[in-house]
């Protein structure tokens, strides 16, 4: 039977560490601050922003919210970003995605000062990650790495398979695993016999966005499975969240597995808080430290 990897408990540990670091910075006269820009009325985005603001308050990070209507122009959003870039009292900037369809997301993300890019999406941070430099890293992959290290310790020599090649999760996840000295395989829609390749892995990261795609026949006995997927399905007349992994089928096979919900999700916000502290350190002349 698998060990359940408790993302809520792990996130609480990260947040406790962040809170202690915020206290140290405040004692030195630095008040870490996170600005969140929300455009439009997407209900899920409003929930995400509310949760981020709540976590920030809990750890002592000052939060600022900038809400623009759905019809706001790209220039209006860029003006807000430019003002936040210029404000030395703001250390982290997050533009909540998705943006309305008439706004070019890449243009907006590229406008954020890379030193304040706490989502880790700016091309300068993406490039630095691929080169192994200590940069602000996308929060979900960084959270997955923390869960893996808490579960396995040293990852050197492990064969890791990442299912999915998105810019937000799959690609940065592969880069972080390589930096941890894993042998890495990335599977995607054109991969041939993906279940066979996945079945060779010591570590499986599922981030493909297809409910329960990965069954027991994809998993080597004893592998550690991190399920990034969050898919809402209707089952037996009820709406529920499931991952990209068939949890019930894989549970007896894997040595450890994250549940959905309660696995990777809480870690994403915790690592956002961690990135805000790292950004504050960098901007106040302190060394940017590697996230565990």
Automatic annotation (TrEMBL):
Reactions it catalyzes: (6R)-5,10-methenyltetrahydrofolate + H2O = (6R)-10-formyltetrahydrofolate + H(+); (6R)-5,10-methylene-5,6,7,8-tetrahydrofolate + NADP(+) = (6R)-5,10-methenyltetrahydrofolate + NADPH
Keywords associated with the record: Amino-acid biosynthesis, Histidine biosynthesis, Hydrolase, Methionine biosynthesis, Multifunctional enzyme, NADP, One-carbon metabolism, Oxidoreductase, Purine biosynthesis
Signal peptide interval: none
Gene Ontology annotations of biological process type: L-histidine biosynthetic process; methionine biosynthetic process; purine nucleotide biosynthetic process; tetrahydrofolate interconversion
Keyword Zinc-finger found: no
Pathway(s) this gene product operates in, as recorded in its UniProt entry: One-carbon metabolism; tetrahydrofolate interconversion
Keyword Nucleotide-binding: no
Domain of life: Bacteria
Residues binding NADP(+), per UniProt: 164-166, 230
Pfam families, A to Z: THF_DHG_CYH, THF_DHG_CYH_C
E.C. code: 1.5.1.5, 3.5.4.9
SUPFAM superfamilies: Aminoacid dehydrogenase-like, N-terminal domain, NAD(P)-binding Rossmann-fold domains
InterPro entries: Aminoacid_DH-like_N_sf, NAD(P)-bd_dom_sf, THF_DH/CycHdrlase, THF_DH/CycHdrlase_cat_dom, THF_DH/CycHdrlase_CS, THF_DH/CycHdrlase_NAD-bd_dom
CDD domains on file: NAD_bind_m-THF_DH_Cyclohyd
Domain Tetrahydrofolate dehydrogenase/cyclohydrolase catalytic: 5-119
GO molecular function, one term: methenyltetrahydrofolate cyclohydrolase activity
Ranges for domain Tetrahydrofolate dehydrogenase/cyclohydrolase NAD(P)-binding: 138-283
Transmembrane segments: none
A GO CC term assigned to this protein in UniProt: cytosol
Reported function: Catalyzes the oxidation of 5,10-methylenetetrahydrofolate to 5,10-methenyltetrahydrofolate and then the hydrolysis of 5,10-methenyltetrahydrofolate to 10-formyltetrahydrofolate.
Subunit text: Homodimer.
UniProt xrefs under HAMAP family: THF_DHG_CYH (MF_01576)
Family: Belongs to the tetrahydrofolate dehydrogenase/cyclohydrolase family.
PANTHER family according to UniProt: C-1-TETRAHYDROFOLATE SYNTHASE, CYTOPLASMIC, C-1-TETRAHYDROFOLATE SYNTHASE, CYTOPLASMIC-RELATED
Protein name: Bifunctional protein FolD
Organism: Pseudomonas kuykendallii
Name of the gene this protein is made from: folD
